[in-house]
Design brief:
Layout (H helix, E strand, L loop, with lengths): L1 E7 L8 E8 L5 E9 L5 H11 L9 E4 L3 H10 L4 E4 L1 H12 L3 H9 L4 H14 L3 H9 L22 H9 L8 H24 L7 H13 L3 E5 L4 E6 L5 E5 L5 E2 L3 H5 L4 H10 L13 H7 L9 H7 L61 E3 L5 E3 L15 H4 L1
């Protein structure tokens, strides 16, 4: 399953878009298939056509394409990859429902996503119409979306348990620190990141002696520890009924369809669920025969067998032959950092604090108005008990005399 998305770069001088195509390997690790830089969303066709040219087999009908419901992306995928199965990111669908009908509608929509049969899907829609406010309006909005784009029971191919485009969204966050650079530096940083990623994962995969990847082995080990709680009742050679002790829920296992189960996990994840594993144990068959090859350690090593050669930023200078675009000019006066005044704060700005002085600042006076004030205005000022400013001696800082009569100065 290939996830597609784009994000805006943070370079203010040359704003562009970073296009990404990602998959998830058998060890539940995100792998970037390709990335591209373009000025706007209108270049989705350019990116997908180049991706199809570089990744052989991308146009295979067995490849699932997942993306959010961007108008330009929907049209580009339909034009460039018409034979593939297209599904929508359920997270973005939920966000649209929350925006129109409130946050509580999400739990009802989750039941629709993971419904394993059409009967359970219709039952979940009925519950939505009866229990939720404006339920009929919500159900009408959901029915306008193709059920084959998001519901588990209606999907023709396996999604390996992934119903969103979170894989590509996570890489947008991982590349966030690189998005401030211009195009050439951004390409260099992404290239270096992928080179290091391939080396580390290739070394780990080639050094492992296990048959399965760590992700698949841990999950199947959990099933093997819990399968003893299940009882298997065989109907014939190919079908059986599996029930958990102390529970009324029952699951139908059928070997004719590569050991499918009514819980739908075997078909979704392409490994034996706990009910299929219980069936295999009762028949004394090796359940590893029903594990998809994507979870094999040798498949993981082959995925990262390609070596990405190192490059320098100077090497990219000879590759780029086009002229740099004119930087975007923002209309209006240039923005500056403004210091708020001391009168108060505005829009979350902190109030400006003036420096604190040890002594009051001397303010020149116009001379004494009365003869009785002549003594007080002779030197630097201080604060008296009555609240009036008094003068200090400029030499010894006392208030009982002036500078010209200071005894310290005479000595």
């Amino acid at each position: 399953m290939v996830a597609l998305d784009a994000c805006h770069t943070k370079n203010k001088k040359y704003p562009t878009l970073l296009f990404l195509a990602t998959i998830v390997d058998g060890n539940n690790q995100i792998l970037v298939l390709a990335y591209g830089i373009a000025p706007d969303m209108d270049t989705w066709c350019w990116f997908i056509s180049n991706l199809k040219h570089c990744i052989h087999g991308l146009a295979n009908p067995n490849v699932v394409i997942v993306f959010d419901r961007q108008k330009g992306l929907i049209d580009a995928v339909a034009e460039e990859l018409p034979a593939n199965e297209h599904i929508h990111c359920t997270f973005h669908l939920q966000m649209n429902l929350r925006r129109h009908f409130g946050a509580q509608v999400s739990k009802y929509f989750q039941r629709l996503i993971y419904a394993t049969t059409k009967e359970k899907y219709e039952e979940a829609v009925t519950v939505l119409e009866e229990q939720y406010t404006n339920g009929k309006e919500v159900a009408e909005y959901i029915r306008a979306i193709d059920v084959g784009k998001y519901a588990r029971y209606a999907l023709k191919l396996s999604r390996y348990g992934r119903v969103t485009s979170n894989a590509v969204e996570c890489m947008n966050g991982a590349f966030l620190k690189f998005l401030v650079y211009a195009a050439r530096r951004l390409i260099f940083e992404l290239w270096t990141y992928m080179m290091r990623c391939f080396y580390e994962r290739r070394t780990e995969a080639q050094g492992s002696v296990e048959l399965l990847t760590t992700y698949a082995k841990e999950r199947l080990d959990e099933f093997e520890q819990e399968y003893g709680r299940y009882v298997t009742c065989h109907s014939d050679v190919n079908t059986a009924l599996v029930q958990c002790n102390g529970s009324a829920e029952q699951f139908l296992v059928n070997r004719q369809l590569r050991l499918s189960c009514s819980c739908f996990e075997s078909q979704e994840m392409q490994w034996p669920c706990i009910h299929v594993l219980s069936w295999c144990k009762s028949k004394r068959e090796d359940y590893l025969l029903y594990v998809d090859r994507i979870y094999l350690q040798k498949s993981l090593a082959a995925c990262y067998s390609h070596t990405i050669p190192p490059i320098t930023e100077q090497d990219l200078q000879s590759v780029v032959t086009c002229r740099a675009p004119e930087p975007a000019v923002r209309r209006g006066r240039a923005r500056t950092v403004r210091i708020p005044n001391g009168g108060g704060s505005s829009r979350g700005r902190t109030e400006f604090q003036y420096p604190v002085r040890d002594e009051p600042r001397l303010i020149p006076s116009q001379g004494p108005r009365h003869a009785s004030q002549a003594e007080d205005t002779a030197g630097p000022s201080t604060q008296s008990s009555q609240g009036k400013a008094k003068r200090r001696c400029g030499v010894c800082r006392e208030t009982c005399h002036r500078r010209d009569t200071c005894p310290v100065r005479k000595h």
